Amino acid sequence: MACVRILIADDHELVRQGLRTLLASQPAWEVCGEAADGVEAIEKAAQLRPDIVLLDVSMPRMSGLEAASAIRRESPCSEIVIVSQHDPAEMLPSALKAGARGFVSKSDIGSNLLSTIESILDPTHRAGDGHGGKPGSAAAGESGGARETLAPAGAPQRAARLGSLHPQRHRAESLLLEQNYLLELIARGRPLDDCLRAITESVTLLQPGASAAVVLASSGRALIERIVSSRLPAQLVSELGELPFGDEGTPMPRDTVVLLGKPITVADIGRDARWAPAWRELCTAHGVQALHATPVRSADGTLTAAFLVCLGEARQPNAWERDLGQFGAHLASLAIERWRAEGALRESEQKFRTLFESIDEGFCVLERVPGESGAPVDFRFLQANPGFIAHTAASDAAGRRLREVFPAEPEDSFRAYEHILASGESRRFERGQLDRGRVLELYAFRVEDGSQSRLAVIVKDITERKEVEEVLRQRSAQFEILVDRAPIGVFLLDGKLRVRQVNPTARPAFGPTPELVGRDYSKVLRELRHPEYAAEVLRIFRHTLATGESHHAVEQAIARRDRPQTEHYDWRVDRIPLPEGGYGVVCYFREVSAEVQARAALQEARDHLESRVRERTEELEKAYRSLRVLSMRMMQMQDEDRRRIARDLHDSAGQLLAALGMELASLNRRASTLSPELAEEIGGSLQLVQQLTQDIRTASYLLHPPLLDDAGLTGALRWYVTGLSKRSGIAIRLELDERLGRLPRELEAAVFHIVQESLTNIHRHSGSKTAILRIELGGGRLLLEIEDEGSGIPAEKLREIQMQGSGVGIAGMRERVLHFNGDMHITSLSTGTRIAVSFPVEPGGPRPGPLMLNS
Predict the structure, then answer these.
(1) pLDDT of amino acid 373
(2) What three-state secondary structure class fits 246?
(3) What confidence tens digit (pLDDT) does each residue in 97-114 have?
(4) Could you tell me the pTM of the whole model?
(5) By C-alpha distance, which of 107, 212, 123 is closest to 176?
(6) 3-state class of 726 per DSSP?
(7) What pLDDT, on a 0 to 100 scale, did the predictor assign at position 733?
(8) Which of 324, 325, 455, 763 is the most exposed place for a label (fewest CB within 10 A)?
């Protein structure tokens, strides 16, 4: 076989590379050249004389369609195949008219390009597929009448030609002829079902004995929407259309082509167990024994239908019948896409019409009316929406002329419309006056339909806007008056920092400078202020002008240059839009020199007063510290007196009573042998001595228990709690930390007296029958807690305690705690009172600073 020479023309290198790779799979084909635009394609086609020219449509310098017409004239032996991204249904008529023999969408290059080129090069390459149909069958005869109603002009000659061709020799040429016919039918916009029915009829013509059908799926692909076929019995089509598919137990199995998108072949429907008996019986009863189904996809790859090639005998479809399935699926996809595109176009037109009718703005289309020589130019209304009628009160403008509908329309409007048509520039202008009640804004532009004789006009009622603008103008005038009479200084600079306006209050700040308005503010400022300050102010003004960021200065001291004086100002600068466009800056300022001086004098007096207050406070604090020291010294002296008295009672009276008791005991023993009555009296005296000894010991221990010095805090607390429980009847639970050892003597005495005072208050005031005493060590501190379940401290009394106005007992506890840098917290509710005290393990000196009770 001779080598096939192919020329590729596409402006994208990647596309040309992909085509070269695909064509290289055919050993007998050769890419003889490449072109990047239409002009180069014509030149290389004339130079190389290729057998096939692959042309893209959209290319620089010249489109593929224009190049195809030129190549057909210059190189008639070269066959042209259009390879494009455009919609085949829209592009095919133009491609055929330009002389192309085939059209392949770029999305289908991999599956259709090689077979299209083969069908053009060698119409006999598909002969010998086997299982051919029976020529001259009844089905073939029936098709003629059916095609007659669908075919365009020349269809009878086409059908006759198909009948005269030998099926084994001209399959490929017949396939191409049918494709061109069907593409023309789709391109002419025939109804979808007519196009699909024609596609199925083509399959029967190309393969007598076979029939075809297009199964369109519903949007969810769970139901058959409808089945279109030119040859399948109407009863079969009707009953199949009522069957669901895709669910378990339904006639069509879950792996149907519409669900999976893969070709499906059923060689023997009657024996295929995948199909329900009702489906098999329905198909075989109408002569469908086998089928081959090919998925039909939309341009975006969505499955929309299945193309069925149905056979009257149980067998595998041959290659030709499979190709017919691919052929039918491809054309069905084009027909469905064209139908959907037309539907979308109709929907878009409807939306435009709805928008056209419903928008508030008026809209009309005018067409220039050619006038006779010397006659004034005029325009005819082609259409006008309700908004136009509402704004202009021209209810019957369509079809009439502009001069007729609006006799008072000024001539400059007609000249403006003429200019718009000639130049293509849009224009915006106003009609009407506010004092007459209405003002309309017109926006006119040329309609780009190639005629340069039509223009569209959008009409908008801007009466309210004009009224607002008038109100703003009046308010602006009022604002000017307010600025002139404002009690603060105001001056305005333009975008080049030239003085535009200065109100009377601001005028004295500029000194004797003449004719301020129009002068350069930077020069004026340098005349009045020192250079460093002037440069800084100008930098701030320029920054505000450039960025819009405001700047605010408070009581800024400003030295004048024209006289030896320092002034103080509050001032602010803002960016404002100017009426003519662009931005300027406005500065507001107020001289506050008198206020600054008064505040300085007031501050001086305040500082003097605060100094005196500090001195008096220091004196009071010193006196308070002296009082604290004296109070603590008195407590220490009290503790020493208690210790001394307790020791004296123990060492003197206690010892004497002990000796007296021993003497009385000795006398009692002697008297018992001499006189029982005397012994009884001595025994009574002995009991009184023992009771007196016990009372003295208790008094001594309460003043200062000797155990506190001898056994430490732990022993003293156990003795005291045990004795108090017996005397008061209060159940006191003592919880002591095992780690608690000996503490400094003063700290142990302070803790003991705090416990003593607290438990005494519980006994006297709370009415509680229980109490808890807990001492722990943790975090370098000694923690003491005393709790009861009594009636609590009255709220008024608790506030008095918190304000350090309590009695002697609480005050003494507080002084002991503060002396050792401790903290005391008292909380009380109706359910009981809790006292929590903590001391550093290593106590320091008296706490400095203000002394308070935390509660």
Answers:
(1) 65
(2) coil
(3) 888 888 888 777 877 888
(4) 0.38
(5) 123
(6) helix
(7) 92
(8) 763
